[in-house]
Amino acid sequence: MSLPIVAIVGRPNVGKSTLVNRLTGEMASIVHDQPGVTRDRTYRPAFWQDREFVVVDTGGLVFGDDSEFLPLIRQQAIVALNEAKVAIFMVDGQIGPTALDLEIAAWLRQQPVPILLAVNKCESPQQGLAQAAEFWQLGLGEPYPISSIHGSGTGELLDQLLDYIPPTDPEITTDEIRVAIAGRPNVGKSSLLNAFLGAERAIVSPISGTTRDAIDTVVERDGQTYRLIDTAGIRRRKSVDYGPEMFGVHRAFQAIHRADVVLFILDALEDITEQDQRLAGHIAEQGRACVLVVNKWDAVEKDTYTINDYRHRVYQRLNFVDWAEAIFVSALTGQRVNKVFDFVNQAVEQHRRRVSTAVVNEVVQDAVNGHSPPATRQGRQGKVYYATQVSTQPPTMAIFVNDTKLFKDNYRRYLEKQFREQLGFKGTPIRLLWRGKKPRHGVPE
């Protein structure tokens, strides 16, 4: 990343994610009373005065306990500190200094990064100074009383932050492609992200539900910038309890909404599920481009017909996205992983493609000549006057006809099929808007 990085660290439940949301101006990180909600490091853009920077939220640090995800969370925090220009160490002013705070402070003093000490939950200006004063004993310099929830004291903290953040240099930005990595739990989304980057960017674990936030990572390949968004595994709603997992699933759907293209990850060792079908329907409904990435292909026993049989079964079950290209990969071995970007580029190109009105009408005319619109028993027949593309992302065609009621679903699907056969649009949904002729003097045409 070209912008300087500010890492936020601390023990669990001191309000790190709340501060991230305050600094970035959005509900970017999941906030919940349960410890351990934030596990990966999440990157969010922020600014103060004339400076732009990236805030990194990290999981709560716990030493002397190697259970569950805690060693991995520590590893992620170390990576964030190594990338950072400055770090903010957050503590809880209402509880006061704890043994874990002292242990983390001793560890931070050994790190090669400047540290600012933020004493959170100091909602009262009068009591805040007294609460903050207790933390001088950490040996990290002046403690700044703040309230992440109300924003008090954050201005003073950010003013100090500017000593370590250089003024933003104007630079030419490239056209960024936003890529959401989505799928059910344990299909290998985070492993695929790490395979793209060649680094342990996201925590990978066989325990389903490891990723909860939608995590943005910016990479550049062959002069093109990509924003990769790893998301939480999406389970059936009745399987998701209220709390962090529910918020994570909600963030996953938000990630799909703001993406240009979705890498829909499937597990080659498992059958297509009802939840896969729901997710495919959501991708199509949102109008996102899509690439079907069949992971764990190295573990499948194959013969001459395996790949074609599997591809046929996938398209049959995921008919909502039967226009998407499929690629068979292994995040574990790296097999064909680099080719995924080629599929992304092709899908995005089609998603942004615009076709001239003359070509659109030529396709429609050929379709009508090949198969006339059906007529009613009363002899009224559908007529297509003309068509034009009205927008992209996804490509959207307006079809002007005499009466939209005369064009049933079968004929509408037929016309969409003709657009795909004649114009391609592989990798993107297309939308047809049917527009009827306005009645004259209140009498329908």
UniProtKB/TrEMBL annotation:
Gene from which the chain derives: der
Keyword Nucleotide-binding appears in the UniProt entry: yes
Any Pfam family: KH_dom-like
Keywords: GTP-binding, Hydrolase, Nucleotide-binding, Repeat, Ribosome biogenesis
Recorded family membership: Belongs to the TRAFAC class TrmE-Era-EngA-EngB-Septin-like GTPase superfamily. EngA (Der) GTPase family.
GO biological process: ribosome biogenesis
Name of the featured protein: GTPase Der
Species whose genome carries this gene: Pseudocalidococcus azoricus BACA0444
Oligomeric form and interacting partners: Associates with the 50S ribosomal subunit.
UniProt: GTP 1 binding residues: 10-17, 57-61, 120-123
Ligand binding (GTP 2): 183-190, 230-234, 295-298
EngA-type G domain mapped to chain residues: 4-169, 177-352
Keyword Hydrolase assigned: yes
Function of the protein: GTPase that plays an essential role in the late steps of ribosome biogenesis.
Molecular function in Gene Ontology: GTP binding; hydrolase activity; ribosome binding
